[in-house]
């Protein structure tokens, strides 16, 4: 931990007096620490007493009583789906398949931007410095989300099924829909991959095995290989999906993804609920990343067999899906559900395991673990600072245990991305929060009014 530049040359940012949870290989926890940032990267970190003499920075923040960790990497989100917040949780299945509520094809461009910005600010305020998002109007929402200062990967839903019919239980696949949605995704990648100083990117968001025909899934796999783009999807998220694939293709969803060339270590697949031992083993052999959504699954009365996935060799990262974006709570649910499967508290599920899933494992799923996901010299300075002076976080004998078992996303005080502050004292730096909330509320009201009118219900 030496300074590559003379002490007379000030760094950009110096954080002092805080506890660092590094999520390095040894999961080091450094009390009374300092961290130095220069040109967006971590230049030095360690005990504050070891800070080289003469070290200075343009900006210094003294943060006693705070705990910092790497920014969270939320690998599966639908920011716009805040429009069904408090309703979708009690429907029993995904909004896209449920009649009588707003759907993606109902959202106007302006509404999409307003709701996407809401979801992005929510994620930032809860400590997610990267979100991997998918829904509609991505050509407009991606730059609008990135303007808020975080890392944003986005893509429109890629499918060849007619979503307007799925709520009625009809799966009709049309080549024209597939060509349009895949073409839009490839154009999005060409324009926005690596933009905003490297903060934006695109993964091909193949919606789900049942909303993409077999031939179209093969086409997506070919495009992924040709363009060097990773893929994300939903997998075995419902019994109806499994039944539909069995009727249509004569196999399970995991077998289908394997057959078409998508089941590999460049795939992030959300949920993975309705899978047998053979399919879990198949995913493990492929090195697939499971986007684990523990609270969302449990709210629907289901769970993914994450213990079995881990033992099979599959990788696990965390996502909030269309629930609220508090990844601290997601970590806690992931830990509890893992222990429920084991029926015990042992070394297999510990706080460090789920913190890795929320940080370095998520970064690895995104292909960015050489840049983000841990607090280490040379990595991008994506840092989340929690205020541990609050009653529910005192006393603090074990910062890692307190973070996972007791903390909440609303305990986040400051957030930095590439060393630039994007949340200060619990408020977004690059948005008028009151106006953003008003815009999103108006968009949601308009969507619900149209949805109710379409069913004859009172507006």
UniProtKB/TrEMBL annotation:
Residues 68-422 form the Amidohydrolase-related domain. Keywords: Hydrolase. GO terms for molecular function: hydrolase activity, acting on carbon-nitrogen (but not peptide) bonds. Pfam families: Amidohydro_1. Belongs to the metallo-dependent hydrolases superfamily. ATZ/TRZ family. PANTHER family: AMIDOHYDROLASE-RELATED DOMAIN-CONTAINING PROTEIN, AMINOHYDROLASE SSNA-RELATED. This is Chlorohydrolase. It comes from Pseudaquabacterium pictum.
